[in-house]
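My current task is to audit a protein record that another person submitted. I need someone to confirm that the token line plausibly describes how this chain folds. Take the sequence as given and treat only the tokens as open to question. This is what I was given:
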Amino acid sequence: MKARGAVLSRRSAHSATVSDWKTLKVGERVEVVKYAHVIAAGLVEEISSSGNVVWLEHSGPGVTEEGKELFMKSDGVTLRRA
């Protein structure tokens, strides 16, 4: 028998925080979280080679006219798969 909490549910495992942004794939859907609130969501458009910067394609507040928004780890945001 496994200890309680040792096994993540399928939903929890899928939406787990992405610690290494370089593991993301272009076209993958993610949510951007800051202070425990989802501040944006969209598809990964591009990831920097360092893995510290990601461009998301989505619509909503703060988005450029192309529908893309830049997020940096240094801004204190985390990403999780949606």
